[in-house]
Specification:
The structure is a homodimer. The first copy, chain A, is mainly alpha-helical. Helix content of chain A is 72%, strand content 1%. Chain A is built from 17 helices and two strands. Chain A has a two-stranded antiparallel ribbon. Chain A starts with 16 loop residues before the first helix and ends with a helix.
Chain lengths: 337, 337
Amino acid sequence: MGVVLNLEDGKREPSIRKLIDLTAAGLGEVNKLILSKAGSDVEMIPEIANHLISSGGKRLRPMVTLASAEMFGYSGDGHVKLATSVEFMHTATLLHDDVVDESDMRRGRKTARTIWGNQASVLVGDFLLGQAFRMMVEVGSLDALDILSTAASIIAEGEVMQLAAAKNLETTEDEYFSVIKAKTAALFSAAAEVGPVIAGASRNDRAALRSYGMNLGLAFQLIDDALDYGGDTKKLGKNVGDDFREGKVTLPVILCYRRGSSEERAFWKQAIEDNIADDAALEKAMALMARHGAITDTIGRARHFGEIARDALAPLPATTYKSALIDVIDFCISRVV
Amino acid sequence: MGVVLNLEDGKREPSIRKLIDLTAAGLGEVNKLILSKAGSDVEMIPEIANHLISSGGKRLRPMVTLASAEMFGYSGDGHVKLATSVEFMHTATLLHDDVVDESDMRRGRKTARTIWGNQASVLVGDFLLGQAFRMMVEVGSLDALDILSTAASIIAEGEVMQLAAAKNLETTEDEYFSVIKAKTAALFSAAAEVGPVIAGASRNDRAALRSYGMNLGLAFQLIDDALDYGGDTKKLGKNVGDDFREGKVTLPVILCYRRGSSEERAFWKQAIEDNIADDAALEKAMALMARHGAITDTIGRARHFGEIARDALAPLPATTYKSALIDVIDFCISRVV
């Protein structure tokens, strides 16, 4: 099952090509720094780090940091260090998430915890987080440190919030947004804001990029949650139905449960709370979502935040960087095909 | 079974009374800050944080930070924030350690993971680490940030090292020291060094406190490892034999294994590698340690590092702070009674 989107400029396939080209030099440096800072005499550390780092993430967050610094004329190497820090924070979160969610697959590959165990995943995550902070300190911007360390706390707080709300079908849409704002959007927001910060851009420019990142992050997570009930496995790198089988109460489920009949709610309780989430149940869940427009409306919410992200950048002069960052919004939303 | 130490100044019971009195005002502020920074609308966070924080740790590390700043005339509130950061880093490590070690008891109480689960322990640890970094950033000293973020990486690296060497009886004494230097001594060292750093003390003063902390930390961990084979449960807050039952290769085991006959080595292999570590095995292990002087010599190593810690402070003028910090060395070593 797929959901076809009517993109505003339906003529071209939205792409992050422009962003990739613009940040190519910086990203090359980021990749070098990743390898060197994930290095350690303790063999297990580079092994696990490389497993995750080479497993085909798009490096979206570090590219956003690089672009958001360069667009304000930054010419040092601090943005490379901050971009690498952002990627390490993200990687550390993935390592800990997989332990918390007991996930076996990530981006189409075995998770680190299934290969090296939960223990190593926890500790290597801690190591990468420590290395991230060391790199930030090297850059020497207290403002950037403030933004990224605050994000680190908020992300963890969001993860605990999600854990506390686990399998609770009475979770409201507002509560869901609090969780994804903290666990996903806060890092996108920080990744975008530190660029103008180290470039010495204005208060308004900082606010613009912060808002762009926050809303992009919300859109990104909403689409991720929609994809779980109707994406193409290869594109997504996770299997359709992973969230369902793990009993995650994401927006598609929240909408479907709220809009459903009492019989349907009983089905959701069985599936999510009692974990009766086999293939037949998944098929039924997807049929109910289609009936109630749960996926379409989840994507609609994502488009809403995408619009806000776009408008956040509106006051900035028209540059290739600006249009590359706007393409990212369309790219994230168009992942649902 | 107990080991009686002949303290150099055998007349008095070594105590941290002087340190407690000197840092009382600062420690009151630390305790307030702990409560406020471990606060969150996400209920599980303060619950878990309070469980750990109220469970009777001595607050040795934050007291060292407070004293090491005040002894150089520091009069702001930055040392309170750094001391709280140090305690949070320590608490985060305990939370993750208990998950990694699958421990059920810590300081005589159930561990957080047995009450709230591994997942919450991992995430609340991450939250406390994030909060620690935020507080450090507030203080605004890049040198202090460098010292503490480097310690965070090294601690995690040490934990991975320990995991990789787990149950390996061929671990050398040198490898053991690399592990405890990273996982325990690095934080003591950082806790002591950031004091002179924010007080604007000299390079030599920084080096003195760093060395004091490092060697104090080594002595502390050695005694901790000795206590596991002969301390008083109530004093220790963990049960004698915990390390043995978990198959940890600590110095008492390393010495005993290396000095033992081939029959004895077969016993150790069964106990540590095959996990045949019941009460009878523990009794035998303790008898072998007595035979080979493994505990006595572990304590001897601790005294060696205690001497180095004392000499590190020797060039400093004789003040109450200095003598309070020296008392800490004796206190740590005299825990074996």
